[in-house]
């Protein structure tokens, strides 16, 4: 019972504080977006996401949680312009997204570093695509390598770096070509708990420093609450936005995870997700 | 029977690295079999050589002038070069060269003891003397050069032509669809079966031999290039696309560098084939070359010379593979293993 009241309080606060955030212009507009795949060898189409509407404001850190297979990654691919929607529309700065571009950078869970390039050369990759002159490229790459705390590792190949370091390089690579939006697809899921926590804090530091708009996919509720200004909770497949929660803390000093409100947020999201996870597992059973 | 062995011995290395695109010609293998005359023993030997080449590592070569024996042990020393401590390296050398030393000892002792007929299998020392005499007489360098020029020409030609073709097939679906059936058919036609055709068309001279070597070398390079292009990690392509790379730059900056190690595997296999098949061609019809030398020595009952020729070929194959390995390492320092 008390848990439910906690949830209610949070919601009321969300509404109250929404005013401040909505003052900023919309960076990414997702309007009734749907994506249906035709599966080979099956005449039943596969609906990955359905009727998703969501606005991400400029400079906002939005996290997206949902049960596995709910279409989170599809949604990210759509924003990235790697696939196009079968319904609805996606806007960036008010103009429709058609194809990938250097105004958006993606960070993948599996790093996606080019194994034949050193850390520095990997960071330069996007700058080459942007046709930045060689000298400036090098300078900028070094700057971002420093920013993610990897100075001294310029000439290491990805296989000579730890998982956490690789992800730092990947983040630096996406930051280096200076996109407005950073799309992150469970970037810390493959890392151990300690590395993950330190990278989370570092990401927040970088976000505050660079004012990027960040859309961060995760299946970790803690991570979503810790990082996001807002948390969007998705339903099981076909993925829809179930609820969007504003996350506010009086102070981020000290151990945020020990803050009672952290626990309340987490529990609230957990409650929202519980049914969806059960539904997703049910789906997997019936399909498998 | 021998034909079957030849086929299965020559192909697994390709199969492993390059799953063939499905095509109706896949079944052509047994029909292509009869008519081949390649000695199965030689083919099996080469396959083994190609296999071991994949696992060993080259780090250093000793500076002093190698004798034939020396070169062989030196290779094994090099093989253990990864270890850091000198003591463990020495242990590895001893362990690895033990079988080889034993073989050499048996080869020396058994003929002398009369356990095998010394006329057909002379002691190793006599063979080495014969080898040295041929070296001084200029006979060996002459044949060696003739063989080397032929195999390098065919091999070089294969690299120059098969890599671009492989890239095109791997990258452009229509090219693959168009060429696959023909390639599938020819791939399953042994080079040895086509040698008479090459001789008919290009005559008995150098051209037919070079074309023959080219044909044999082109397949491993082509198939590995195709599979190298096709098996590039999709996430890397996605990542590059997300950074706005068009098809041309995607190919240049992602596909090509990612495919290099696989292409090199093909090049190394081709290097082994180039010598292997050439020897066969030289045995069929030539006036110079190591294959001719061996055949000629056997006809004239110069048994030590024959063995000397065989040892030279082994050494050449070994050296060629080591050379290619070191080039390969230079190009793929980034590889995890």
Question: What brief labels describe this structure?
Answer:
heterodimer; A: 288 residues; alpha/beta; Rossmann fold; B: 337 residues; mainly alpha; MetI-like fold
Please tell me about this protein's structure.
Chain A: Residues 28-261 form the ABC transporter domain. Chain A: This is ABC transporter ATP-binding protein. Chain A is built from eight helices and ten strands. With 288 residues, chain A is of the alpha/beta class. Chain A has a single domain (2-103, 179-287), classed as Rossmann fold (3-Layer(aba) Sandwich). A six-stranded mixed sheet of chain A has the order 6-7-8-3-9-10, with helices on both faces. In chain A, β1 and β2 form a beta hairpin. In chain A, α1 crosses α8 (260-287), α3 packs parallel to α5 (163-176) and α7 crosses α8. Chain B has 15 helices and no strands. Chain B has 337 residues and is mostly helical. Chain B has helices spanning 2-10, 12-17, 29-32, 40-55, 68-79, 86-113, 124-137, 139-171, 173-187, 191-202, 206-230, 234-242, 247-284, 290-299, 303-331. Chain B has two domains: 66-120, no CATH class; 122-337, Orthogonal Bundle (MetI-like fold), CATH 1.10.3720.10. Residues 1-83 of chain B have low confidence and may be disordered. Chains A and B meet through β6 and α3 of A and α12 and α13 of B.
